[in-house]
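Obj.: predict assembly geometry.
Materials: sequence records (below).
Method: joint structure prediction, all chains together.
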Amino acid sequence: MNEPRKSNAMDELDAVRQLLAQPPPAPDVVGAARASLEQAGLVSGPGVPPVHLNGGRHLFGLGGPAAPHRRWRRWRGWLAPVAAAAAVVTVVAVSVAISGGIQGHHPVRSQVSVPGIGKVPRYFVALTGGNTLPDEGQRAVVVATATGAVLASIAAPRPYRMFTEVAAAGNDRTFVLAAQRAAPVEPGGPMLNGVGPAKLYKLVLSRSGKSATLTALPTPLVTGSIDGFALSPDGSRLAVSLQPTTRLVRPGPAPPPRGARLLVFTLATGAERQWALPGIGWIGANKPNPRTVSWADDNRTLLFEVHRGQGGPIANLRLLDTTAPSGSLTAASKRVPIPSEDISGHVENPPMSLGEPLLLAGDGTKIIGTTGVVTSHPAPDHNRRRSLKALHELTGAWEGLHVDYARHASRTVIQQAKERVKEAAVKYRKYQPTYTTVVAVTEVSVRTGKPVQVLGRRQVSGDVSEWPLWTNSTGTALIIAGPAPGTTQRNQNIVLGIQAGNTFTPLPPGVQSFIGQSPAW
Amino acid sequence: MTVTADHTGPPEADARVIEQSWTQPERFAAIFERYFSQIHQYLAGRVGGKTADDLAAEVFVVAFAQRQRYDLARGCARPWLYGIATNLIGTHWRQEQRRYRALTRADARQVTPSDEDLVADRVSASAVGPALAAALAALEAGDRDVLLLVALADLGNGEVAQALGIPYGTVGSRLNRARKRLREALGGANPAAGQEAEQPHE
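Observations (raw structure tokens):
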């Protein structure tokens, strides 16, 4: 669609070019910008290493102002799939009994301390590994929600190397996993990327909670890049949305996304239905968040999201009766009348801005999502010029510190340089605006597309978002990834917690380490 | 106009680099090195060099913070970065208007900072600068965004649609409208062809 401009466009456009032409930025400007990006890397969130530019220069324990966020943000990569697929391979189904992995497991109810813990599933499955287990691939771990205790750790059966998707049924015991082969992110790098067709496995915890069984499902291999992955509440059917994989594999510009499909497998038989999305677009949330595919309690009605057009600017939520025959996805499903701008992420300040993933309430009549209203409070003595000057002072102080390190200055000199950096950082922060956000979990009618009820609401510091990961049928108990109580703009702390009404209670610290690891309840 | 200083790899690798930066943030440095200069020049064209210094840095800080939202189906990150830059300009419209006002003066050299000397030379040669600047200032913000993404950033219509999150067709209509306004402001003359009158194309 990117047509080159007409070559006869020599006229007012060229005049504009001449009028506004500017020389390239001076080296010190580039240096200052690098420094502010490094600074952003330092505050980019828990567990995220800082950015170092210019061959790994180090910044030393410096806090800094949060990156400027000007809008309600909805997506983070911690639900991101690492999927890519190419060739077809034949795989023999395997069955692995897992026992002994749950040794030392105590009934979690005896350790209950989080309000509402009895209303949420006792177990979840997360995908761990990644950077820490480059040679073993990504494993599936069964975790107790109340304690964070790892009850079992399961490697993908060979020839697969990693689990790349996981979804949970509503019975707290049944999960489906997708396993793929692995490839290094880059030649010689760690084995991180799931490649090739995905094989589906069912993981069932025993009723006593003392053993788990992994069984290969009789479903066909899933070929493509998986965007959505959801198990029906009764565990009988799996919905998978996917797209042909072309990206990141061959050189050249990525073609417009076409050929997205929604598959529904009947797990007992391996039977498959599939619906194709016509035209350019994809199924699922705005990438990389893959989770807006959600079942109603009838195990039949499926909520999913469609992004149409290059870049996906037109977003629809749709409901599919999965007993319908295979065919065109748009013909088989019905649009929920929520305006595109409220879900597309392409509009700066949409009226409702529903955060993803979106969940379908048990009876299928309402959608549960998060909304947020951000208020910006300019710094009392904000002044662009002074702010810029302060930034330059800060970057100057940094440079000084780097020089001191480079010349192996004494500990005292380096300490003084660090103090200067800290002072400059405090001064710079003075000019930065502050934000408060009212985050709410909202129910929206699938019939009218209008909000019908706020299930929970709270005000937090900073420009922050939250994400609903699980809900009970009525939305009275949810598991949310959201800002911890007492979080501040500078030190935003996103945690997994239980939202019941207006009360948000973080889950125990042991659970928090799974926040970036596709936890599925 | 497009400057690709420190271009360390083909643009189609952007999606791959950004995906890698999810887990290895330092990878994002490649995006910075690849695009900082051109983003800065775009911003400088719109809000002036001094403000652009600050805003261009902000673009990359924002992009870094939002890197996990990047649609990996888009191979090239340019439209994404220009979209962020254009959004940031939206919060500095007074600054942009001041710049256009300055350029409407007969002798831009006297009223603008030294980094605009280069501009003044070129503009005085064509003598259409003041009228053009006034017309730019008078454009609807959305139309101006489209026009300047095409003129300054050299984006194609499809890339502009991506950058601004607007339909492809809207880009065309906004661009046509903006160009028409500018031509009207220039008395229908083609500034690249002296005082020779020219019929509008569209």
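Conclusions so far: Chain A touches chain B through 84 residues (CB under 8 Å).
To do: check interface contacts against the pulldown list.
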